[in-house]
Amino acid sequence: MFLSLIFVVFLFAVIQGFVRVVVFFWEWLSRGDRLGEEQVELAESALEESEDVLERELARAERKRGLGRIFARWHASNEAIDEYLDHLRLGWYQAVIIFFLGSMAGLLIEEVWMLVSAGLTESRVGLVWGPFSPLYGLGAVLLTWLSFFLRSRGAAGWQVFLVSAVVGGALEQFAGWSMSTFFDAESWTYLHLPDHITQWVAWRFLAAWGVLGLVWCRAVMPRLLYQIGMPTTRRQAVFVTLVAVYLVADVAMTLACFDRKAERDAGEPPSNAFEQWVDTNYNDEFISSRFENLKIGGERDLVDADGNIVLDESGRAVTRGGEGA
């Protein structure tokens, strides 16, 4: 009990220290040489307008009592954020940060969910470097752009739900189809679910995408964009550019590794020095340990003519290689 308490205190201290470092670094980025006058003026004007609204609404909130004051303050915060978003120019700066954060947050949520629901602790990363799952990052960016657009059009909740479900399903279909077509690989399949539409799309997950999009549009996106803001210094622009370059290199390297894995399975030797380097440093053992939920080539589930997963006598899925999963 005592050791557990010590561990909790230590963990809290580590998290608190990490948050302080991030806050300090973010504040440091906001100082230094400024960007162009137009960009800085736009960002500062949006912030000033937002602060004016916040000050006015908070003054009104002070006239209320009890819970009414608490709700009024929350309303004031929302009004200020809405005012800021009315002036926000959405661009690459916000997209890179959201992709970066979404890739990590989505991976963490998925791994926690798999641990709670199935007792699995397998690695579910999607890139060779870093704790990222690009499908979630791309989904976060698409939902942000979509939510920002629908917000500007005053879309109703049911419209946000339907559009989010369609976009989420299309993203899953495209990602799953691309992996299967170009790399003979799969990270997930819904063929075992009674409500599957395709191998990578199921009705229950379309509903989940719809709910996620609605929550993102109404609760997450406004405050997230408000916190990210618009770039005003060269430090911010340079840092986010470096993050973007790293992520592009990470995605490119991952695709190269998958491509070589498929070629190795087909018996094709490396054709140049780079492919030899990939085979040496990112061999089959690395791929299987890094992407534990990924199935490539003969490791994929065998599917019959009706599109159903073939099971053996014990009820386990039969792989294309002829073995039970």
From TrEMBL:
This is ABC transporter permease. InterPro entries: CmpB_TMEM229. Keywords: Membrane, Transmembrane, Transmembrane helix. The keyword Cell division does not apply. Pfam families: ABC_trans_CmpB. The chain crosses the membrane at residues 6-26, 90-109, 129-150, 157-177, 197-217, 237-256. The keyword Transmembrane applies.
